Amino acid sequence: MIRNYLPQDGAALLRLWNSAGVSMGYAPLEEKKFRELLLEHPDFSPEFTFVLEEEGKAVGFVNGCTGDHIPRGDVRGYVSCLLLSEDYDTQENTAALLSALEDAFRRAGRSCSAVTFFNPIRLPWILPGTPGHQHNNAPGIARDLPLYGRMLDLGYREAAGEMAMHLDLAQYETPAWVEKKAEKMAQEGYTVAPYDPKKHHGLREMLEALENPMWISEITMAGETGMELLVGLCGDTVAGFTGPIYPEATGRGYFAGIGVAPQFERHGLGSLLFYRLCRQEKAAGAKYMSLFTGEENPAQKIYLGAGFTIVRRFGVMLKEI
């Protein structure tokens, strides 16, 4: 049968994570970390978590979340993960779990079920071809998983393609042409420097011009709390950003994104910000960097030029419900 999650299911869900989940590419987790990332996450709810039970044993589960505080959460429910033990990993059971979650989204007044990076429940996975390097979130469903094809068969569509990219920072050195470019840009009044609120102005205005609620929240906080934040400048006016810069516990150099306000584009700030980010993450002690980007995003040329390689491809999945 399929039923809502109960507190006593925690241990069974952890076992499923470290068996079925790890076989799908998720990072193995100890109980404390699993609870922190999923079961005790502020957006976790039994209302949107369903367990497939066979003879009193949990053999699969699906988790989702929604909420007006999440980008587009007023109309979307977000699928976080769906795991089935090997003997029960079938299209029929996949359909049953997704149907239960979609019904819960409908009851909550949502009209779309989605798998995108806007989901605040971020679950780590292993970057293929690396010595256990982790990425802290997935932008969709990996195309190399059976779940991808099953969701297409169940009425989901791929709204966009995303690429996961990886760089071993031990191999990274800033190319000489980047320094020459930085010198030329400085002559034109465009530079990259650590953000100094006493000297630089316009951070909030730049973020609002980019119209990304997640960036507005995170980058504003980073600027206010003194975290190392790289900004692109036109004189002393903040024209773009990258960072904040710090190594995560996994050794990954954190990457929130890069943005340049529209009125300051086409001066080279985006690429210079990225190369400076790689340099500073390495200097801060990060062992590697990872990111995902759209398959049609021209910025991938910057990432490939810095030495990143494509290690996995994902589909952003949507279904009108």
Question: Which terms summarize this structure?
Answer:
single chain; 321 residues; alpha+beta; 10-stranded mixed β-sheet; 4-stranded antiparallel β-sheet; 16 strands; elongated
What does this structure look like?
- The protein has 321 residues and is an alpha+beta fold.
- Helices cover 32% and strands 28% of the residues.
- The protein is built from 9 helices and 16 strands.
- Strands 1, 2, 3, 4, 5, 8, 9, 13, 15 and 16 form a 10-stranded mixed beta sheet that branches. Strands 10-11-12-14 form a 4-stranded antiparallel beta sheet, with helices on both faces. A two-stranded antiparallel ribbon has the order 6-7.
- Strand 11 and strand 12 form a beta hairpin.
- Helix 6 (203-210) packs antiparallel against helix 7.
Task: Bin the strand percentage.
Answer: 25-35%
Low-confidence stretches: none
Oligomeric state, counting identical vs distinct chains:
single chain
What percentage of residues falls in helices of 4 or more residues? 25-40%
First CA to last CA: what distance?
A: 23 Å
Shape: elongated
Rg (CA only):
21 Å
> What are the secondary-structure elements, in order, as H or E?
EHHEEEHEEEEHEHEHHEEEEHEHE
Mean pLDDT equals 96
Q: How would you characterize the largest beta sheet?
A: 10 strands, mixed
| Alpha-beta content class | alpha+beta
Total number of strands? 16
Number of helices: 9
